[in-house]
Task: structure prediction
Amino acid sequence: MRDTKEFLRRGATYASLALMAVACGESDEETVVQQHNALTAAEQDAGWILLFDGSTTNGWRSYNGDAFPSSGWEVADGCLIVLASDGSEEGGGGDIITEATFDNFELSIEFLLSPVANSGILYRAVESPGEPIWHNAPEYQVLDDSAYIAMETMDMHTHLTGDNYDLHASRVNASNPIGEWNHARIIVDGAHVEHWLNGQLTVEYELWTPEWEELVRESKFADYPGYGRATSGHIGLQDHGHTLRYRNIKLRPIAR
Result:
């Protein structure tokens, strides 16, 4: 009897996880039983920190704010979701950041694009009243590449998914099609930065070198002296007015 009850308990748990995966945008045929928004024993041993628990906004708040946005974002089906706004390019809820700050780290995060989605993952963000987050924080671009290429409204050289926004273009096109999850990985270790997308290295650069300084002078950040200067800061998610889902947000501090 005990074995039968345990079998049924495990079956119910697996079914629940599968339903969560489907709700987050995966089809029945593609679903692989996986514990989302949780750390494995190996990850815990390696020092990973879970930044999103899958059911609350704990650990997150508005950029330049004291609380999580009252609109524009929601938690549903194990996902942290930025919602489409009513025509505002900057979004209805505004950008959000982790309450904690980090200096050197490896960040792992999954995202699911909707058609024409536009967002970004920002790092080492510092708050400055009256200034948007992108004035200071480097950005891992998150975009429905095909839609913006077709519309010809985006700089296709440094504004596609996996790029270091407006500075470094991806080495490869590693994006998955709309409807499939993507895995982003960002390593920031001192001046060294790497962007990864679905297991492929897209961008690698060194902060504060003469080459980086020249790129900044020729970019939209030329007029913002604080851009990319912080050695520690928040992780940020951009609200650009388009529906997009995030999950499995994890970070491993790198000791120096």
In short: The CA atoms of residues 84 and 242 lie 4 Å apart.
